[in-house]
Amino acid sequence: MKIILVGAGRMGQEIAARLTEEGHDLTVVDNDAGRLGEVSNCVDAMVLFGNGADYTVLTEAGVSDADLLIAVTSDDSVNMLCCLTGKKLGVKNTVARVRTMEYFRQMVFLKDELGLSLVLNPEQAAAAEISRILRFPSAAKVESFAKGRAEMVGFTLQEGNPLCGLRLLKMRDRYGSGILACAVEREGNVIIPKGDSVLQAGDVVNVVGAPAAMSSFFKATGTYKRSVKDVMILGGSRIALYLGSQLLDAGMRVKIIERSEEHCDIIKGILPRAEVLLGDGTNPRILEEEGIRRTDAFVALTGSDQDNIITSMFAQSSGVGKVITKVNDDCFRRMVDSHKLDSFVTPKNIAADGIVSYVRAMQNSIDASGIESLHEIADGKAEVLEFSIRNDADRLGIPLKDLKIRRDALLAAIIRGNECIIPGGGDSIRRHDSVIAVTTKFGMQQFGDIFEEQPVR
């Protein structure tokens, strides 16, 4: 596909890297020559200097012949103008990054008028991910599928856990058939586990199942943590505003510490039910005075990765039950011992997942088994794909034992109606099912890609 990407900041660079890895013909537009230089050095894409909202610049970029225009500059109004101009010039589909709460709320009414195919709000998506983790504090990461009917939960296996030394063949007998271990991170590598795989202390295990089955599983393994009622948030960013609203609506108590008096006033106006405190939350004394040792969860959301990591480590050492850390640069995450800090959120990666999922869905819009959603796990070493099975897709009605699934892929769950099925050899795929697959092979476009050969008839 031919794609025009306007905006070469941190998020734009991540999206550019993912799209070129997928083999797309990409042109990146920005009015910052330094950023364009970084793109040229890192990805195989054309670059064009100029204002992406300008008619002449978009024409030079070839927008009239493009399949997709993506605008992810730091200015919402510029992104919307880019998409509106691109649509007038003939681009087929447009995606705009819209971060401001006021604009985002109006997108329901303005999306069609602006010709937008997709509205991307990384801050709101990051807040939603944090909220899911806080509602399931035993997890390091929680992904939701099929409108919440299935979840994938990643957690670190601690020494002494009854899962240590367990052969996965025995997991179903010991903990029921509602949970499946579908990916294991071990010493920097990702394993798509088989029945004879054995779990070890230190593994990051990703399991899939229905929410109720997931809770039962964590209680049975002694990994369950009590529910979160009090949350301390460091930094009054946009993510904090979205997150605070979600947590308050869920009945949690929220305390936000922000060092800017002006931002404190804004937060109080938007979240009147939250406790908003003016102060430097990177000061341990202030955190202790505000009760960090008594809070259930701590979320670090400042603009500094270093501050987020250091304060999160302090919160962990202070006995906080759940600590979540926002990082913008993946290199900082890799430098931190995951056994001490296990829950990280990276907005640019969430945005890139959404874009790649949308682009693959565009490519397969007429296919009978298109991608509904895509998530990277294991620090980007594996993908989780949700396929929607429509019409008369291949391999329907054939027992899975008669289908040869790739060694680097696993069919993890089938969602049928409101039921989440952990499939066995006798199960089969039906029309209208949603299917969750995990793979270490990137670039899968359709459901048939997880198989090695044609079905047996």
Write the layout of secondary structure elements.
Layout: E1 2-6, H1 10-21, E2 25-30, H2 33-42, E3 46-49, H3 55-61, E4 68-71, H4 76-88, E5 93-97, H5 101-110, E6 118-120, H6 122-135, E7 141-145, E8 150-156, H7 171-175, E9 179-186, E10 189-191, E11 204-209, H8 211-220, E12 230-234, H9 238-249, E13 253-258, H10 261-270, E14 275-278, H11 284-289, E15 297-300, H12 305-317, E16 322-326, H13 330-335, E17 343-345, H14 347-363, E18 369-377, E19 382-389, E20 409-416, E21 419-421, E22 434-439
Parallel strand pairs: 1-2, 1-4, 2-3, 4-5, 5-6, 12-13, 12-15, 13-14, 15-16, 16-17
Antiparallel strand pairs: 7-8, 8-11, 9-10, 9-11, 18-19, 19-22, 20-21, 20-22
Helix pairs in contact: 1-14, 6-9, 6-14
What does this structure look like?
The chain has a six-stranded parallel beta sheet, sandwiched between helices. Helix 1 (10-21) runs parallel beside helix 14 and helix 6 (122-135) crosses helix 9. It contains 14 helices and 22 strands. The chain is α/β, with parallel strands linked by helices. The mean pLDDT is 90.
Computed CA radius of gyration, to the nearest angstrom: 23 Å
Given the helix and strand composition, which structural class is it? alpha/beta
Number of strands: 22
- Overall pLDDT level: 90
Helix content estimate: 25-40%
- For the termini, the CA-CA separation is 35 Å
The largest sheet has its strands arranged as: 3-2-1-4-5-6
**Poorly predicted tracts of residues:** none
